[in-house]
Design goal:
223 residues; little secondary structure
């Protein structure tokens, strides 16, 4: 990775690239940063409210407690980024790369993560009410203790994901793949599992009251 970028030039809008910069608490609301290179930058506590970060490179960036509400992060790369406690209400993360990212306790209600890649990502304790995760890849992701009420997981892949003690009330898992998912003590009240695959999943003590289970595959699942 190149040497740390020029913080002053970045804050003055002279460049959109600031690799490994210390930008803690920076005020970057509505900033046009499409395609920016911010790999390894520290944006903890920064405000990127409604900023445009489509196709930006934020791999390994620290965004702890950052405000990304309404931000456009479509097709952005956030591999191994730290988004703990970040605010991402109604953010657009469609097609984003979030493999191994830390989203512990993040707030992503009504965010768009269609076709996003979250393999190995940590979403423990996150709030994702009404979030759209259609066709997202969540292989081996950690979703335990999260609130995913009315979230859309249609066609999503959650193989070997951990859903323990999380809430998925009213969520849509139509045609989703939850093979070997760990869903012990998980709340699936009124969820839709039509054509979903739960082969070898651990569903012990899970609540499935009112759930739609038409053509659901429970082969070898623990119930």
């Amino acid at each position: 990775m190149p040497a740390a970028g020029d913080v002053v030039a970045f804050l003055n809008g002279e460049t959109n690239d600031c690799v490994r910069c210390d930008l803690k608490g920076a005020q970057l609301q509505r900033r046009a940063l499409a395609g920016a290179d911010l790999r390894g930058a520290d944006l903890s506590g920064a405000s990127l409210h409604a900023a445009v970060l489509s196709k930006a490179r934020l791999d390994g960036a620290r965004l702890i407690g950052a405000n990304l509400d309404l931000a456009n992060l479509s097709a952005a790369s956030l591999v191994a980024a730290d988004l703990q406690d970040a605010l991402l209400y109604r953010a657009n993360l469609s097609g984003a790369l979030l493999n191994d990212a830390n989203l512990t306790n993040a707030r992503l209600s009504e965010a768009r993560l269609m076709r996003a890649r979250l393999e190995g990502a940590t979403l423990a304790g996150s709030v994702m009410k009404g979030t759209n995760l259609a066709a997202a890849l969540l292989v081996e992701a950690d979703l335990q203790l999260g609130n995913f009420q009315d979230a859309n997981f249609q066609g999503a892949v959650l193989r070997k994901a951990t859903l323990t003690n999380a809430g998925f009330v009213g969520s849509n898992f139509t045609s989703a793949d939850l093979t070997q998912a760990k869903a012990f003590n998980t709340d699936f009240l009124a969820a839709n599992f039509t054509d979903a695959r739960l082969t070898n999943a651990d569903l012990r003590n899970a609540r499935l009251d009112g759930a739609s289970l038409a053509c659901t595959n429970f082969d070898n699942a623990l119930l």
